[in-house]
Target: Phosphatidate cytidylyltransferase
Amino acid sequence: MKQRIITGVVAAALFLPIVFYGGLPFVLLTYILATIGLYELLKMKNLNIFSINGLLSLIFLWVIIFPKQYHHILSSFFYSKTEVAMICIMLLLAFTVITKNRFTFEDVSFSILSAIYVGIGFYFFIETREAGLVYVFYSLFLIWATDSGAYFVGKAMGKHKLWPEISPNKTVEGSLGGVVCAVIVGILFSLFSKTIPVGLVTLMGITVVLSVFGQIGDLVQSAFKRHFNVKDSGKILPGHGGILDRFDSLLFVWPILNLFHLWT
Model:
């Protein structure tokens, strides 16, 4: 627990100032986090990111994340994100032929889906930060409240297993407790934030949806790890695991938050 707390404090001290500052440093931080996340996923399937196919997967990921405010850079080369992504996919497929199927169609599929999974989540992290700091902190506090509520309520009252085949320690009572704690966060943001342009009831409804999808994101990562028989996605954060272990819920929350069009 001590190691977990120390890691959390150090990570927050590095992470939060860059989130506050925004701009290019924040975009670079997002690219670093996403790159590590893709590395962790590929490693689960024994795919090496430091290879031709790994590099193509990485370029595909970077293209997905590429922020709207920098699209003019690609346009100056007469290419769009879609065209560059298409080239990466075609080269990955061609690589199955070059390697005489040592790099298989299944490997291509896993690499592409992994890049999409990680890339879409972190792309909308950038979009959320562009919309305003309040939305970033709303999403962070919402997930922290969901995780904490699910843990403590589950510990105290949990009797019915939520999804034992995927995550044997999670309970229905804990899940509901996480949603309730998230709603409390939503109420506080509605009362004290002047920049979220929806009423209390609407924000509470949005918060419930985001809390549920955050828990689904957590279960998705648990399913990955159980399928590949690994305890943590990585070891970069002592006491916490890998980047995907910390951002699994948020990779679902940020795209779903964008779908509510709160800042358009």
Observations:
- Residues 133-264 form one domain.
- The chain has a mean pLDDT of 92.
